[in-house]
Amino acid sequence: MEPNWDDMKIFLAVAREESLSAAGRLLKLDPATVGRRVARLEQALDAPLFAKSPQGYVLTEAGERLMAHAQKAEEAVRAASGAMAGLAGTLSGQIRIGAPDGCANYLLPQVCARICDANPDLDIQILALPRIINLSRREADMAVTVSAPTAGQLLVQKISDYKLHMVATRNYLESHPPIKTVAGLKGHRMIGYIPDMIFDRELDYLNDLGIERVALASNSVSVQLRQVTLGTGVCVAHDFTLPFHPELRKILTDQVSLTRSFHLVRHQGDQRNERLNRFAEALTRGIREEIARLEAAAAS
């Protein structure tokens, strides 16, 4: 008996999740069914594909060999599906985007809403995580990142630069000593990332400014901005978030003006997927335009 594509999908899920229960949740199957299907595939191939370890299900040598072929088969199926979907006038189906929460909260909602307006049969899922999205495990179809990855078989496209400045509320600035220099920030309560949870070197703003203590810290941009809008301190904020928080004022603009970049990262095997290509084009254009619109509003 030769393995079928359904069994290969289950094999891929177990290999990526390293657990029958996690694979079952992903596939909407109970773990016992997943285990039986894996056993059936091993019987069909006459080889053990997984070894059980304290860490979970680990690929055997035979499993590693099958993994390479299964991924190619998956890419071929996705490419064929995307090519057929791309023939239609509008996009349909489901697409999941991973993004850091600043982008996910302040850019993607309006960008994705406009894409959905133009494609009524399209479902978009935004995965907002304060960490790097794992595309190899198919957590998402594509991801917005701050740093361009250099490892792995990935398609990387720069979307746009964006700017950041130090901010605080008017009330905070009026009720605390004047902030005239970066060195003077040390006398103020700083709001920023939890130092040991910064997942991208590009986000370590405060350390770059020589600020060691972060009195109010969160791994979420949204939480940081909520804290600063309460008048509790000073933080670094994306300019594109400022139109949503009119109570915030930029400070030290002549001394602190940071520029970072967003990149779109995709599976290399998806470059022939016309559906995802069209979506990626709409997404990058939308993010670029939204950053320009919001930064212009923040400067006015």
Automatic annotation (TrEMBL):
SUPFAM superfamilies, A to Z: Periplasmic binding protein-like II, Winged helix' DNA-binding domain
Keywords (A to Z) from UniProt: DNA-binding, Transcription, Transcription regulation
Entry-linked PROSITE patterns: HTH_LYSR
Domain HTH lysR-type: 3-60
One term of GO molecular function: DNA-binding transcription factor activity
GO biological process, one term: DNA-templated transcription
One Pfam family named in its UniProt record: LysR_substrate
Membership in a protein family: Belongs to the LysR transcriptional regulatory family.
Name of this chain's protein: LysR family transcriptional regulator
Natural source organism: Ruegeria marisrubri
